[in-house]
Amino acid sequence: MTDKILRCRDVQEVTGLSRSTIYRMMNRDDFPKATKLGIRAIGWRQSVVHSWIEGRCDEQFR
């Protein structure tokens, strides 16, 4: 199974978070770190983002 790379807009759409919130949360280690794809490009592994979402949902129902 291949793991798709999500760009920032894709992550925003999936999580419902704004770009600035994603970066702020990354700096606080509350969101998965992005992977550098090139000189000016970053992305997140789809599986990592979905695991983060599932983890957040699990926290809310504890």
Characterise this structure.
- This protein is of the alpha+beta class and 62 residues long.
- The chain has one domain.
- Helix content is 52%, strand content 13%.
- A three-stranded antiparallel β-sheet has the order 1-3-2.
Distance between the first and last residues' Cα = 31 Å
| Main sheet specs | 3 strands, antiparallel
Total of helices: 3
Average pLDDT works out at 92
- Stretches with pLDDT under 50, minimum 5 residues: none
Q: Give the strand tally.
A: 3
Helix-strand makeup class? alpha+beta
- The domain count comes to 1
Report the order of strands and helices.
EHHEEH
Structural shape: globular
The gyration radius over C-alpha positions equals 12 Å
- Spatial order of strands in the largest sheet: 1-3-2
Helix content: 40-55%
Condensed summary:
The protein is α+β, with helices and mostly antiparallel strands.
